[in-house]
Amino acid sequence: MQKVEIYTTPICGFCHAAKRLLSQKGVAFTEIDVMRDQSRKSEMMDRAAGRHTVPQIFVGDTHVGGCDELYALDRDGKLDPLLAG
Hints:
Blueprint: E1 4-8, H1 13-24, E2 30-33, H2 39-47, E3 56-59, E4 62-65, H3 67-75, H4 79-84
Parallel strand pairs: 1-2
Antiparallel strand pairs: 1-3, 3-4
Helix pairs in contact: 1-3
């Protein structure tokens, strides 16, 4: 299983939806709250090619994008293989 990291804020509905999908799939992930630790937001933006909205999701070295992209991968049957590595 690939390492999964998700940059979030506690008030973001899309963040909650993305975490719910990952949890339903039994995926362990590291959550990075950029509201609590502002220095992590610049890290997120560097990793996400300047994107500043949350969530920003990374599976291994792959930048998935946000919640919509995560759900699209799942709908297309591409999320599980990506998670498996």
